[in-house]
Amino acid sequence: MEPFAASFLALIHKLVGSILVLFGIVLFPMPIPVGLIMIALGLAMLAPYFKPIQKLVRHIRRKSPMVDRNMVRFKDRCPKVIRTTIEKTNPHLHPEQS
Fold first, then answer.
1. Are 40 and 53 in contact (CB under 8 A)?
2. Which residue, 97, 87, 86, 95, is CA-closest to 55?
3. TM segments (predicted)?
4. Under-50 pLDDT residues of the chain
5. Cβ neighbour number for residue 65 with a 10 Å cutoff
6. Which residue, 64, 18, 70, is CA-closest to 44?
7. Among 36, 52, 58, 59, which is least packed, fewest CB within 10 Å?
């Protein structure tokens, strides 16, 4: 991929991920967990670009084996940016980072 196209795609991922997290926070109190799903998707889109978010997702995966199993289970069905997040936040490959 060309450098311009790659940087433009990264900008789109950051923008969409941020919007998902913000709207997810607003919708979080709703009875249906739409806000939680939006926050999770937004963090997954932002994680390949920000180390603190990778650390947060890795911590969540380490604390919840069910989340970790499901991320690994559905990895092949996800878009490339989400697959990158799953790989970069694997708690088994990065045990020294909490």
1. no
2. 97
3. 7-28, 34-53
4. 97-98
5. 10
6. 18
7. 52
